[in-house]
Specification:
alpha/beta, single chain, Ribosomal Protein L4, Chain: A, 12% strand
Length: 201
């Protein structure tokens, strides 16, 4: 069986005194989402659109405005001018110090909100989603967006939790500012807390 308890403030001393840097947290979250973005939007320019490039009517004498091609961007069905090509890049880059400071600031905010929990005494003989659901239900966390941070050593725990719709599993060394902000409860299992502390020593 397993048990969930709230992590004491003394265990979070590495972050709970850190002041919130809202602009940096925002920048880190925007950069994370931008770097996940798949830049696949693409349109046809006048070189790729179907149709003839013949002048539709003579230049003068018709009373109509002059045109040189039916595949011009001015025409319905014509090529798109200056549209996306599928090669655009929206990625953003933060320095290592900025990422570290943003994560520490976000952890400090969440620490003061008392949303850090420890998953202790995990003893599973086989994968059991029902067991983990019962544990989270007893802790009144079922209605929350839970981020379960692990040290990557407990395969049974990973298999047990992956079918819970309200819980996301993540190895603690992959934790980012986005993950801290996007989830309402942070549950650490195994040696995850010690690894998180070591990251900011």
């Amino acid at each position: 069986m397993a048990d969930i308890k709230q992590i004491d403030d003394s265990e979070l001393s590495f972050c709970n005194e850190v002041e919130m840097n809202e602009p940096l947290i925002h920048q880190a979250v925007v950069a994370f989402e931008a770097n996940k973005r798949a830049d696949v939007a693409s349109v046809r320019n006048r070189a790729r659109v179907a149709g003839r490039n013949k002048k539709p009517w003579r230049q003068k004498g018709t009373g109509r405005s002059r045109h040189g091609s039916r595949i011009s961007p001015l025409w319905v069905g014509g090529g798109r001018a200056h549209g996306p090509t599928g090669e655009q890049d929206h990625s953003q880059r933060l320095t290592r110090k900025m990422k570290r400071k943003a994560l520490l600031s976000a952890l400090g905010v969440r620490a003061r909100e008392d949303v850090f929990f420890e998953l202790a005494e995990v003893e599973l003989d086989e994968p059991s989603t029902a067991t983990l659901h019962e544990v989270f239900d007893d802790a009144d966390l079922v209605d929350e967006n839970i981020l379960l941070l692990t040290d990557g050593q407990d395969r049974l725990l990973e298999l047990s939790v992956r079918n819970l719709p309200y819980c996301r599993l993540l190895k603690v060394d992959l934790l980012s500012t986005y993950h801290v902000v996007a989830n309402s409860a942070l549950v650490l299992a195994g040696e995850a807390l010690e690894q998180l502390k070591a990251r900011f020593e």
